[in-house]
Write a structure and sequence with these properties.
The chain has 349 residues and is an alpha/beta fold. The chain has eleven helices and 13 strands. The strands form two sheets. It has a seven-stranded parallel sheet, sandwiched between helices. It has a six-stranded mixed sheet with strand order 8-7-9-10-11-13, sandwiched between helices. Helix 3 (85-97) crosses helix 4 (111-117), helix 5 (146-160) runs antiparallel to helix 11 (325-339) and helix 7 (214-226) runs parallel beside helix 8. The longest helix is centred in the middle third of the chain and has 17 residues, at 175-191.
């Protein structure tokens, strides 16, 4: 697998020269890149990059699975600290020009870049995870009902808390992360209205460092522990690992996010504290998109994963959680009620 650590200024200059050549009658972007595709695929990571034990790592697992099962050559591209949309445009352009198809942006932050780049490569399928705002004939919008999985986490938190106080830590206060908060708070309150929920965000846009700085997550979790929280749900990417460390050291319960964090090697020292995780089946979503292109039937438009398709779920990897029969029963009932439409989960607090 080819891994690109970052796009350098030399690459940006090269892109500018290429665009100049196009203006002078050279080969256009729409003529470059993959013709049909399916043999090469690429993912461009969100803030935190591979190794976040969460969101990005779930996308990587899908690419790795495609390499193994579909004989696809994978490429990865890492973000740069404090980068802007122009950097993302350059990254996606380079990946498309290199013949990758599909090219997948991991995270809603890629929306402006995909809007600019996708029309220039009409033969290439562009996927974007967690965004449905940018559309096109060659764009696949992979989205999840995060609020539904978070509702189940709220049910579990309300059932296991002894202090009647639980915490929610969001990386950055965006509409997406507020879906996690909304579902979690609703699940807690529907289960036990007497439980107090402490919501906290690490940063505000345009500062997205709340997804990449474990020290911020650790400090936020410690503050919630000081307020007697004994269950903390973190939706904060790499920053969430800091929260998990603090909560584990205090002997309290964590709820992980995106990946099954109980199984993440980088979090192994804290796994016993990870009660469960709100998983998003990003791995299969990435794999399915790559396979669709490989099969010459590329997915486009909105592709939604919810509880009804097991696109979101609560993990059962921790034996301690799996043995909590009354908690599991409550979670299972809530899941069925959501699928049946008896429970409508909010998408905003």
């Amino acid at each position: 697998m080819r891994r690109i650590t970052r796009i350098t200024t030399v690459g940006i200059a090269s892109a500018a020269l290429a665009l100049s050549a196009t203006a002078c009658g050279g080969k256009s972007s729409s003529d470059a890149g993959s013709d049909g595709g399916g043999d090469k695929a690429a993912i461009a990571y969100d803030i935190g990059g591979r190794g976040d034990q969460s969101f990005n790592d779930a996308a990587y697992a899908g690419l790795a699975k495609a390499e193994k099962d579909l004989d696809v050559q994978g490429s990865e591209a890492e973000p740069s600290e404090g980068e802007g949309d122009a950097d993302k445009v350059q990254r996606l352009t380079e990946l498309a020009r290199s013949g990758n198809n599909p090219v997948i942006g991991v995270g809603f932050a890629y929306a402006p870049a995909i809007k600019k780049v996708a029309p220039k490569f009409p033969k290439t399928t562009f996927g974007i995870i967690d965004d449905a705002s940018v559309t096109g004939d060659n764009i696949a919008n992979i989205v999840f009902n995060e609020e539904q999985g978070s509702y189940l986490a709220g049910v579990a938190a309300a059932k296991v808390t002894k202090s009647k106080t639980v915490g929610f830590i969001g990386g950055v206060e965006t509409p997406l992360i507020k879906k996690f908060e909304a579902g979690f708070v609703q699940g807690v309150k529907d289960t036990d209205a007497s439980v107090n929920v402490l919501p906290q965000y690490l940063t505000q846009p345009p500062d997205f460092g709340g997804f990449s700085k474990p020290d911020l997550g650790k400090a936020a979790a410690q503050g919630q522990l000081d307020k007697k929280a004994d269950v903390v749900y973190s939706a904060a990417g790499l920053a969430g690992s800091g929260a998990i460390e603090a909560v584990s050291n205090a002997g309290k319960w964590n709820i992980g996010v995106d990946s099954d964090q109980y199984k993440q090697e980088g979090l192994a020292p804290y796994k016993k504290s990870i009660l469960t995780s709100v998983t998003k089946d990003i791995e299969d979503a990435v794999f399915n998109l790559i396979k669709s292109v490989k099969d010459d039937k590329p997915q486009t438009g909105e592709i939604r994963y919810g509880l009804d398709k097991n696109g979101v779920a609560l993990s059962l990897s921790n034996p301690a959680f799996a043995d909590m029969k009354d908690v599991i029963a409550a979670v299972d009932q809530a899941k069925q009620d959501i699928i049946d439409g008896k429970i409508k989960v909010k998408t905003a607090p």
